[in-house]
Amino acid sequence: MRIDIITCLPRLLDSYFAHSILQRAQQAGHAEVVVHDLRDYTLDKHRRVDDYMFGGGAGMVMQIEPIARCIRALQAERTYDEVIYMTPDGQRLNQQTVNTFSLKQNLIILCGHYKGVDERIRERFITREVSIGDFVLSGGELPAAVLSDAIIRLIPGVLNDETSALTDSFQDDLLAPPVYTRPAEWEGMKVPDILLSGHEAKIDEWRYEQALARTRARRPDLLGE
């Protein structure tokens, strides 16, 4: 999979993709993340990519031309499955959407900034608009990193144990059950006996019951309750 991220602040993303699972995924050839500096696509001598809003009002708007040049340059090189715009008024990101994205080959992610992008960019180029929550950040770089992380970890071969992702929260509309590791007893607190029993079927049953109870207590909406 290849993910191209368009941003006017590329250095914000440098470290995120240079460590841990995301770094290993790229080194192993499972994923490729390419960050594009939007300022490289402006013809303005000051490298500006924003301007004042028509009609007045506070805040600046990202211009059409640099974004259009960048997207068209990328689309001339390969076919993209989606052009995604990270925006607070987009579709709320969930695991099912991430699962769908993880099956794609090439994605473009556009990071919003200032008051957002000129609406004509959304109308002409964007195929999906995604929000990571009902709040506003300074830009779309962190949301783009969050989305990329969620996608890449699902690609076969990225995680050492590929079944790990299948038991994450939200994969079966349930939250994950409690997990434990050594020591088996700490300050009088013991790991549940069932997890030390070696009885795989009963352990699976216990985990399902715990996941169901946790979901009912914390996110009953996932169960339609």
TrEMBL record:
Its EC number is 2.1.1.228. The keyword Chloroplast does not apply. CDD domains: TrmD-like. It catalyses: guanosine(37) in tRNA + S-adenosyl-L-methionine = N(1)-methylguanosine(37) in tRNA + S-adenosyl-L-homocysteine + H(+). GO terms for biological process: tRNA N1-guanine methylation. Residues 1-223 form the tRNA methyltransferase TRMD/TRM10-type domain. SUPFAM superfamilies: alpha/beta knot. It is an enzyme of class 2 (transferase). Keywords: Cytoplasm, Methyltransferase, S-adenosyl-L-methionine, Transferase, tRNA processing. One of its GO terms (cellular component) is cytosol. GO terms for molecular function: tRNA (guanine(37)-N1)-methyltransferase activity. HAMAP family: TrmD. PANTHER family: TRNA (GUANINE-N(1)-)-METHYLTRANSFERASE. Homodimer. Specifically methylates guanosine-37 in various tRNAs. This is tRNA (guanine-N(1)-)-methyltransferase. The gene is trmD.
